[in-house]
Amino acid sequence: MERPLVLVAEDQPLILLEVEEVLVGAGFEVETAADGQSAMSAIARHHSQLRGLVTDVRLGQGPNGWDVARHARELTPMVAVVYMTGDSDYEWVAYGVPNSQLIHKPFAHAQLITALTSLLNQAENTEG
Amino acid sequence: MERPLVLVAEDQPLILLEVEEVLVGAGFEVETAADGQSAMSAIARHHSQLRGLVTDVRLGQGPNGWDVARHARELTPMVAVVYMTGDSDYEWVAYGVPNSQLIHKPFAHAQLITALTSLLNQAENTEG
Amino acid sequence: MERPLVLVAEDQPLILLEVEEVLVGAGFEVETAADGQSAMSAIARHHSQLRGLVTDVRLGQGPNGWDVARHARELTPMVAVVYMTGDSDYEWVAYGVPNSQLIHKPFAHAQLITALTSLLNQAENTEG
Amino acid sequence: MERPLVLVAEDQPLILLEVEEVLVGAGFEVETAADGQSAMSAIARHHSQLRGLVTDVRLGQGPNGWDVARHARELTPMVAVVYMTGDSDYEWVAYGVPNSQLIHKPFAHAQLITALTSLLNQAENTEG
Amino acid sequence: MERPLVLVAEDQPLILLEVEEVLVGAGFEVETAADGQSAMSAIARHHSQLRGLVTDVRLGQGPNGWDVARHARELTPMVAVVYMTGDSDYEWVAYGVPNSQLIHKPFAHAQLITALTSLLNQAENTEG
Amino acid sequence: MERPLVLVAEDQPLILLEVEEVLVGAGFEVETAADGQSAMSAIARHHSQLRGLVTDVRLGQGPNGWDVARHARELTPMVAVVYMTGDSDYEWVAYGVPNSQLIHKPFAHAQLITALTSLLNQAENTEG
User: What are the distances in angstroms from CA A64 to CA B107, D115, F19, F125?
Assistant: First the structure.
C-alpha cells in the first residue's frame, strides 16, 4: 500500500533520525526538516499530501514549532500535529493549535506513534 | 455560594447582553468587554480569579478573539475558552488555543452553557 | 438571535409535548413529527437547515427511529442524533448511527439537553 | 415522566438545599443525606433505583465521600458519581472511583448539571 | 498467553494478507474472509469468541462491510469494529455502527492497530 | 534518548516476563515486582521518576493491585495506571483509581501499549 506522509521538524540530528526510523517502522512515509525555515518550505511543497506534522518546539533560529504548526494548519486544516518538548507545557496551552498533542522528552517511541495515529484516526471519523 | 468568574468579549451589544444573561442564569459571575482592548485590560485585572472566557472572534478594531484568548492563557493557563463565530471554522484549527471550543452563530444558549461547563469540568479532573 | 432547528419524532403526544418544551426552553427552534412517515417528510423539507434529530426508537407503524436517523444522515451528514428508548440498548449498537447518543426513559430533561448540545458542539469543533 | 433518582450527601445544610433545588430543577428525583452514615443507609435502601450520587468529600464524622462513593459502586456498578470539594484534588486521583467527576467549590450550578448528565449519558451509551 | 480473535474481511488478497500480518504482529489471532458471504459465515461460527472486526466497506458481490458489521453487532454486541475504505466517508455517518472507526486507504499500519486497540480498551472499561 | 520508567507488578513469572519484553520493545525502561509488597517498595524507591504502573489485580499474599495503584497515586499523582485481570470488572468501578484502564486477559500486547501510552499522552496534555 501507499503510505501517508508525515513531516518531522527537529534540529537535533540524532533525535531527528530516531523519530524518522520510528515513523517509517509504523508505516508512514517521512519528510524531514532540520530547522524551522526548512519546515516551512517542506509544508509549502507537500501540503496537499501532508497528513501529519511532528515538530520540536525549539528549532534553533527562525520559525519555532508553534509557528510551523500554525502554518501547516493554514494550508492543510486537517493535519495531525504532535509537538515534542523538553520544557514545561505552560506555553502549549497558549501557543499550540487545537486538537494537537504535546509529548515531553524523554518519551517512549510508542507514545509518539499513539499520539500521531490517535489524532489521524480522530480526524478521519469526523470529516463527515 | 460564591460564583466562578467568566469574561465575555463581544462587540455587538445585544448579543453581549444575551450571553451575559444566559451565563448569570447558569450560575456564573460575569464581566463584560465590548472590544478587544477592553478584554485585554479585563484579563490583566481579573486573571487570578478568571475561570472562563467567552469571546467573539471578530471584535472590531484592535485585538481579535484569537489574540484575546492567547493572552488569557498566558496569564491563566487553565482558563476555559469558548469562541463564538459566524464564519467558517477554518481559522480555528490554525489560530485557536488547545482544549477550546468553537460554536457557530446561531447557537442555542444551552450549547454555550454545555461548551463552557464541559471545558471547566474537564480542567478540574485533570489538574491532578 | 436566530435559533438552530431540531426535529423531534415521538408517537406519544405527552412526551412529544414535553420534549418540545424542554428544547424550546434550551434555545432551539423545534419541528415535531408524530410518526415515522411524518419524520421522513419533515427531514426532506428541512434537511438544509436541520441541526439535530431527537427520535423515539419505536414510532408505531412505518419507519422506526433507526430508519429515520439513517435517512437524516443521508441528507444532512453532520446532523446530531439522540435516540430515546424504554428498551434495552442491545439494538443501538447494531442499528444506531455513529456519533449518536441513546438515552433511556425515564430521563431527566437536562440529560436530553446535554446529549444534544454535546453532539452539536463536538460536530462544530471537528468540521475543520 | 418518571424521574431518575439521585442521592445528594452534604453536611452543610445550605449547600445541601441549593444542590437539591438545582437537581430537581434539572428533572431529577432527589434523596438527601446530611452525613456519611445516612448516605450509606440511603444507598442500601435505594441502590436498585439509584442512577447518580453527588457527594461532598468531607462529611463530618463517619464515612467520607470517598467511602460513600465506593459503597455506591459496590451495590450499583453503573452509578454516576460527582464529588464536590473545596480542597485540592490530589486526593481524588488516589481515592476517587473510575469514571467520576470532581468539581471545586465555588462552582456554577450548570457545572454540576453537566457533570452529572454527561456521566449518565456516557454510561447509557456503553452498556451495550 | 492466549490471543484475542479478530475477523478481517477484505476482497483484495494482497491487502488481506498485509492486514493479517499486521494484526498477528500486534498480538491477535486472526480469521480471514475474502467476501461478504464468507464474513457472515465466519461471524456465525466464531461470534462467541469474536473480539474485533476489521472490514473493507466494498466486498464485491453479496453483503458489504456495513451489512457485515451490523450482523456482527447483532450476535456480539461489544465487538470492536474498524472499517477500511478508499472512498469518502459520507456513507459512514449513515451506515456505520456506533462506536466504530473508519480509516482511509492509504493508512499506516499503526493507525489500524491504534484504531482497533482503542476500541477494545474503551469497551473493557465500560462493561461495568 | 532516555526512557520513561514503568513498574510492572505481576505474580505469574511468565506473564511478568512477557509484559516486560513488550514494554521494553515499546521504548520504556521497566522495573518489575513479583508481589504486592515488592511493588510497594519499588514505588517508594522510584516514585519521583515513575511515569506508569502496570499491575495485575491479584498479586498473591499482601497488597493487591488496587492497593498498589492507590499507593502509587498518593506518591505520584500523575502516574498512568493499567490493571490486568482475568476476572469480571465489577470490582474496577469500585476499587480502581480515576483515569485508569482495565484490560482483560487474554489481551493482545498492542492493547497494553495503547492503554499505557494513551494515558501517558492524556496526562501530558492536561498538566497545563
Answer: 36, 38, 38, 19
How far E18 CA sits from the closest chain C CA (Å)?
A: 27
Element (H, E) at F33: strand F29-33
Number of domains, chain B? 1
Distance from CA of A109 to the nearest CA of F (A): 5
Write down the pLDDT at residue B50: 98
Q: Are B27 and D109 contacting, i.e. CB atoms less than 8 angstroms apart?
A: yes
Report the range of poorest mean pLDDT among B36-40, C88-92, F27-31.
C88-92
> What is the overall mean pLDDT for chain C?
94
Q: Using an 8 Å Cβ cutoff, are E65 and E59 in contact?
A: yes
Q: Which residues contact A17 (CB under 8 A, 6 or more apart)?
A: none
| Residue E119 structural domain | 5-127
Q: Residue E30: beta bridge partners?
A: E6
- Strand ranges in chain B using DSSP code E only, listed in sequence order: 5-9, 29-33, 50-56, 80-85, 100-104
For testing the chain A interface, which of B78, B91, B93 should be mutated: the one with the most A CBs within 10 Å? B93
Q: Which of B113, B127, B126 is nearest to B26 (CA)?
A: B113
Tell me the C-alpha distance between C125 and A97, whole Å.
Answer: 12
* Close Cβ partners of F110 (under 8 Å, ≥ 6 residues apart): E26, E27, E28, E113, E116, E117
A38 pLDDT more than 80: yes
Using the predicted structure, report yes or no on whether residue D31 has a pLDDT greater than 90: yes
pLDDT (0 to 100) of residue A127 = 45
β-sheet with F29-33: strand ranges across:
F29-33, F5-9, F50-56, F80-85, F100-104
pTM: 0.96
Burial class (CB in 10 A: 0-12, 13-18, 19+), F2: exposed
**Which of F2, F117, F127 is nearest residue A111 as measured by Cβ atoms?**
F117
CATH label of the domain that carries residue E15 = 3.40.50.2300
Query: Can you tell me the distance from the alpha carbon of A17 to that of A10, in angstroms, rounded to the nearest whole number?
Result: 9
Residue-wise pLDDT for E55-85, tens only, equals 999 999 999 999 999 999 999 999 999 999 9
On whether the CB atoms of residues B77 and A52 are closer than 8 A, the answer is no
pLDDT for the residue numbered A32: 98
ipTM of the complex: 0.94
**Chain F contact set for A90 (CB, 8 A):** 128
Residue tagged 501529519 (cell numbers): A52
pLDDT averaged over chain F? Answer: 94
Residue D9's nearest CA partner among D1, D20, D24, D22 is: D20
Single-letter code of the amino acid located at C11: D
What are the pLDDT digits (tens) for B60-108?
A: 999 999 999 999 999 999 999 999 998 766 799 999 999 999 999 999 9
